[in-house]
Specification:
310 residues, mainly alpha, disordered N terminus
């Protein structure tokens, strides 16, 4: 059992990453949305070349091929590119200087290991005017696909799917290993589920018909092709990225009161140092409006009430 736990913990170090959207928050970063749209389309092109090596429009092959590119930062080529590229302006924060720097190894094992090796937490970028961590894309594509699979293939209810996400974030993929229950991660999961549903657009968006997108891919002459609209690929990150991806607005919870107090202390020190608001949510109106818009699902992935104990 001990060996199994160690293996699972090491795996979680690879997949569980957090972002600090507070330290250096007010340093300007250019918006990367248009470039990300371009790179996403290029990844679609490469994925469909791979998919179409096999004849026929098999949905199983389609999803398998796309997930070679769109998965997580270990298994997805697009995600690996995003994690390592210098083509996009990013803001790195060393873990030993972040708001999580006071976490002890017995409180947050993965964070402690990152601190020992002077690793960085997930880097921040700006997309559609929103500050978010590069880790959110593996939630969008990876965990989003798991949500989609349960909703459409296993015919689970949307509430059962969101409960599944809650359990994952509460235990191995979240607070048990990082000490942090990230509502921002859960928001990425939710919007990723919508993306995978839009891929073929077989069913209505869970938010309602006014949010329908896609299909992004169609079968033509026995091959999968991008669906073009006015000679343009219609995928746009603006349809998915919103303030719920920003952990500076969509406030995280923490496994223990001790972890919560440590983060609150660091946030207070940032405010004293800069004279600028860092208390979560940094922009209360933005996240409160979004919470109302996403009702009744928002209770599962939006927290506008500030940092709190889980």
């Amino acid at each position: 059992m001990k060996i199994l736990f160690i293996l699972l913990l090491l795996q979680s170090v690879v997949v569980a990453s957090e972002v600090d959207n507070f330290t250096s928050r007010y340093e300007p970063l250019p918006d990367s949305v248009e470039y990300l749209n371009q790179k996403t389309e290029e990844a679609f092109d490469q994925a469909l070349l791979l998919v179409n090596e096999k004849k026929g429009c098999s949905e199983k092959n389609l999803y398998k091929g796309l997930r070679v590119y769109f998965r997580n930062h270990v298994q997805g080529k697009f995600n690996r590119w995003l994690a390592h590229t210098d083509e996009i302006s990013k803001r790195p924060v060393n873990n030993s200087l972040s708001i999580y720097q006071d976490f002890k190894w017995y409180e947050a094992p993965t964070g402690a290991l990152k601190n020992i090796y002077q690793d960085t937490v997930a880097e921040a970028i700006v997309v559609n005017g929103v500050q978010l961590g590069t880790d959110k894309f593996e939630h969008f594509f990876g965990r989003g696909y798991a949500y989609f699979h349960k909703l459409t293939r296993k015919k689970k209810s949307i509430e059962a799917v969101l409960k599944f996400g809650h359990r994952s974030e509460k235990y191995l993929l979240g607070s048990k290993t990082t000490g942090i229950y990230s509502y921002g991660d859960l928001a990425g999961n939710f919007h990723g589920m919508r993306f995978w549903n839009h891929l073929l657009a077989k069913t209505q968006d869970v938010l309602g018909p006014e949010y329908n997108q896609g299909p992004y891919v169609v079968c033509e002459k026995g091959q999968w092709q991008k669906k073009m609209v006015n000679n343009k690929f219609p995928f746009d990150w603006k349809n998915y990225v919103d303030a719920s991806w920003d952990e500076g607005n969509n406030c995280s919870a923490f496994r223990t009161e001790s972890l919560l107090k440590k983060v609150q202390k660091r946030v207070q020190l940032l405010e004293e140092k800069t004279g600028l608001r860092h208390t979560c949510p940094v922009e209360p109106e933005a996240i409160s409006a979004l919470k109302e818009k996403m009702f009744p699902f928002s209770k599962w992935f939006i927290n506008s009430d500030g940092h709190k104990k889980l």
